[in-house]
Write a structure and sequence with these properties.
Layout lengths: L4 E3 L6 E3 L3 E2 L12 H13 L4 E3 L8 H12 L5 E6 L1 E2 L5 E2 L3 H15 L6 E4 L8 H13 L6 E4 L3 H10 L4 E5 L11 H8 L2 E5 L31 H21 L3 H10 L14 H7 L9 H10 L12 H4 L7
Parallel strand pairs: 3-4, 4-5, 5-8, 8-9, 9-10, 10-11
Antiparallel strand pairs: 1-2, 6-7
Length: 329
Amino acid sequence: MSMPKRQLGANGPMVSAIGFGCMSFAGFFGAADDETSLETLAAVEAAGIDFWDTANLYGMGRSERIIGQYLKESSAQVTLATKVGIIPGPPRAFNNEEDYIRAELESSLEKLNRDKVELYYIHRRQQELPVEKVAETMGKFIEEGLIDAWGLSEVAPSTIRRAHKVVPVTAVQNEYSLWTRQPELGVIQTCEELGITFVPFSPIARGALGVADLDPAAFHDSDFRKSNPRFMGQNWLENMEYIRAFRTYAAKKGVSTPALALAWVLHQGDHLIPIPGTRTKEHLADWADAGEIGLSEDDLWEIEQILPAGWAAGDRYADAQMVGVERYC
């Protein structure tokens, strides 16, 4: 298997068309084990996935430390992205001020065993601070060699345009999958127009489009999805009807459900680099070859009939989780 490559931003490096999200290493989707996480990273490297994504928030540095340990003990050559800006609550707050970002960046670099990161995101915007000011701050870090490029997460097209005028934005990261399609209403198009890579996170619908049915009643107490409306009660029962139909279609095509879901995302534009995540190398194997799956116009039409835009019952976040996300439609 050969992993296809895509360019990160207008002037960035060529990276694997499928990236890897490291949020689950911090226990957001159930209890995580550091040794298992290190084994998963080895499998990720072996699969040719060289674009890794984390954040200072994930386990309050736990995910970054695991990556740093792996990089220290291996010869892996990866393009790293991490994020800053969320102060966990309750209540959740946000800080995009230069002094705070600098201190957090220095802390992240220490955990990652790096002198710089290739991509540094504002995880959520601090609304009372003009994004132009934030862009200036990121520009300073680029000039100082602490980061190669910067990005934004969960933002509106208008924010992207404002920021890009000051210091070019390399990547924008928003949730996007077959059950979360709001970015089609402006973000994906804006990124393409401006030469920005769009990085879909949760492209396999937080595991809902996995190889087997999930049982929300069995979720670990720490699992982020326990309070997610789409996994609750009647919403989940309705969603499973659609998911099982999609799983049947994937089986007819001879591919796994998550691989087909990921292939669909990849087919939405060459400027998309999705970052699925997992805690185990076994689940990685379910979708690592998605870049090799070709989809015809007929395939895309059939998928649209099975999972039409807006099919998912329930919001993608609980109200508390939605704080900080820019709404634009």
